[in-house]
Specification:
single chain; 454 residues; alpha/beta; TIM Barrel; 2 domains; 8-stranded parallel β-sheet; two-stranded antiparallel sheet; 9% strand
Length: 454
Amino acid sequence: MTTTLTPQELSQASQKVRTANETLMRRYPGESEKRQPVHTVYGGAHLFKATTISKLGQGALESFHTYAATPAILGEVIGLAGFDSASLVKQIHDRIEAKLVREAVEDFRIDFEDGYGNRPDTEEDATAISAAGQVALGMKQKSLSPFIGIRIKPFTEELKQRSFRTLDLFLTSLVKEAGGKLPSNFVVTLPKVTTPEQISTLIDLFEVFERSLKLPAQSLKMEFMIEVTQSILDPTGISPLPHFLKAARGRCTGAHFGTYDYTASCQITAAYQAMDHSVCDFAKHMMKVAYANTGIFISDGATNIMPVGPIRLQEGQAALAPEALAENTRVVHRAWRIAYDHIRHSLKNGFFQGWDLHPAQLPMRYAALYAFFLEGHDAASERLTNFIGKLAQATLVGDVFDDAATGQGLLNTFLRALNCGAITEDDILKTGLTLNEIRSRSFAEIVKGRRKTK
């Protein structure tokens, strides 16, 4: 058969497309196979101690036992009451309790911004040094959360020098107290980012700290926060979001959305500032478009209605009167339901991480996650089982499995559910995967390994 293109023309066309494809693949390597925490708990830096994480877990468990003592009560709160859902609710209830005992807090941010406020320089200096010492002590005692970091002040003209100094004092003190090491999964959060230069400045500082403190290259990581409309669209009508990630020079682990600052920047009144407002959905979808398949994690914001009863024990009082306990329960359950609905809204829109501000919020974090994953578990399990069972029949183009993206998406769902405690390893084993395959976190690697054994 006669063709028109010469070998040289074919080669030139192939090379041009290959260059473009490789550039795109470097920019969008795919969803990270690392564990993503389901939340970030924020607390003022002045309050942080090596025991803070365990105390938060105790507070979460106490709230759970007080206001959701039985599966039936939990089912009423989250809207799964009734005979048909009794087994599911009991499973959710049992796994929430186990999670709060085992690992209530997955990620904690020691906050020098909104949770700390603007204080005299001498006071913030002392807090930075003290908080670093407590982190070092937590490392020694193994009492820190699996993910941890600090949130510094924004790099605005008013606050940039204060932010630089706090970061310097904290890191210098921490490395000294911890024998030259950083905690596992340590990250610095930069809030209210508006220009790529703010991010690149933080990366420049990281390089100085690594050299001066003799830390391994690339060991300092950061995440930034999207909290104002200018972060979504710049004065030229272009989204700066991709430029933010480029400015991080490979050190960014995540982008977090700030619900209340963002809604305020949109002139939304306080009564309507909430995670599920349409202006938030727009901004978060822009984040999804910019950061999907880049390998960084995206986090939703927080619910600011605290599940705390208004009536407290008085001095010398052993227990609340039944009427007072009933009023507290009503208030807590209302706040829990709002948080539950907000988190479910996030999950449905593909946001698997959010903020928590109080230990009493943690039971609903896990209730929403567990209900979300377990309600669809049987169907997802059947789909993944079918994928695993039909690997040998799959259509291959080179070494690429035709439905690898779908397979990886299913695997990621199971991994997220496993990491947060919604399901167990035994639940995944029923799909036909082995433990080693599960731990590889890569559907492509599973395909490759199974092809070798055939």
